[in-house]
Amino acid sequence: MSTEVMQENSLLKKTNSYEVKEHPQSKRLYHIDIERGVIKAFLDRAKEEGMTVQHLEYTPYARRIASDYLLELTGNDFQHTLRDIIHDRETGGFTTGLRDVTLEKDDYVIFATALTHLVGTPNFDAMTGKYYARFTVNHTDSSDSYLRQAYRLFTLHTDGTFVDEPTDWLLMMKMTEENAIGGESRLLHLDDWEELKKFSSHPLATHKFTYRAPKSKNVDQEVQRATFFNEQNKPCICYIDQFVYPDTIEEAKYLKELSDSMENDKSLIELKLPVGDLVMLNNLFWLHGRAAFEVDPKLNRELMRQRGRFAEI
C-alpha cells in the first residue's frame, strides 16, 4: 500500500491521552501509544473498584464498566478511533500495549477486555469456557491442532471458521515469552495478496465447504462455509486449512493451492510483538498465523485471545 493511500485514509492523531501512529513494520497497521499516566490511572481505578479477572468472568456487565473507566481517561473519541481503524478496509488493524506500566497478567486481561468491549462483544470461547482464552506454547505438546505446536509453521487462517456465529475481529496479546527465538505473528492483508483475484473468482470460491473442529476446541457442530464472500463490495475470506473437509480431489487442490499462494506471498508481514502488547485485527480481511520457533527445551510463551462480533452502530 502506498504512502499516499495511508495519508488519504489517515486516522493518525495525537491527543493528551493517546497518539495514533503509523506502525513501523507496516503501512496497513497503526500503533496506538496510550500515555503511561492514563494506563496507570486506569489500572488503579480498576483495583480501587475491586475489578478482578474473576469478576470480569462472572459478571458480564463489569466488562463494559472497564471500558467506561478507560473512556473516562482517554475521552469518548477513543472509542470512535478504535472502531474507525478496525472497520477501515485500507488498514483494519492496530497494535498497542501497557508500556511496561505493569507486568501483572491479570492487568493484561483487564486492559484487553476494556479495549475489545469498545469495539464489540467477544464470543464465548468454548476451548476455555470463557469470553477469552489463554494458552501456552512449550517445547513439547500433545494437542490435536497446530495452535500449541512450537516447531512447525502455523499456517495463515481466519478465526471462527468452525462456529456458526460472526467472528468479525480478533485480539491477540503476548502475556509471557521466555527462551523464544522465532514464533513471530505472520499477517497478510487480503488486498495485498497478489493472487486474490485468481482465487476469489474461482468457481469454488463460493462453494460451501464443511468445517469440523478437533476435540480440543470443545465444539461439536459441523458448519458449511464459503471461502470468499463480499462485504461492502469487497472480497472477504473465511479459511483455515486444518479443519476444512473437501469432498473431491478438485476441491482439495483448490484449497492447497490457495494456502500455498498465501504462505508464499511477498506482502506477508512477520510482526514483532513485545510482552504486554497486543494486536487487534479485522478478521474478515486479515489472515494470521505464526512462524516456527527455534528448538529450545526451555521455550515458554503464553498468549491471550479474544474474538467476537462488531457492535451494532
Q: Which secondary structure elements does this structure contain, and how are they paired or packed?
A:
Blueprint: H1 3-8, E1 13-14, E2 18-23, E3 26-34, H2 36-48, H3 53-58, H4 60-74, H5 77-87, E4 93-97, H6 105-119, E5 120-122, E6 133-138, E7 154-157, E8 169-178, E9 185-189, H7 196-200, E10 208-212, E11 222-226, E12 228-231, E13 234-237, E14 244-245, H8 249-263, E15 269-271, E16 277-282, E17 286-290, E18 300-310
Parallel strand pairs: 3-4
Antiparallel strand pairs: 1-2, 2-3, 4-16, 5-18, 6-18, 7-17, 8-16, 8-18, 9-15, 9-17, 10-11, 10-14, 12-13
Q: Can you characterise this structure?
A:
- One of its GO terms (molecular function) is oxidoreductase activity, acting on paired donors, with incorporation or reduction of molecular oxygen, with 2-oxoglutarate as one donor, and the other dehydrogenated.
- It comes from Oikeobacillus pervagus.
- This is Protein CsiD.
- InterPro entries: GlaH, TauD-like_sf.
- Pfam families: CsiD.
- It is a single chain.
- The chain has 313 residues and is an alpha+beta fold.
- The chain has a single domain, classed as Double-stranded beta-helix.
- It contains eight helices and 18 strands.
- The chain has helices at residues 3-8, 36-48, 53-58, 60-74, 77-87, 105-119, 196-200, 249-263; strands at 13-14, 18-23, 26-34, 93-97, 120-122, 133-138, 154-157, 169-178, 185-189, 208-212, 222-226, 228-231, 234-237, 244-245, 269-271, 277-282, 286-290, 300-310.
- The radius of gyration is 19 Å and the shape is globular.
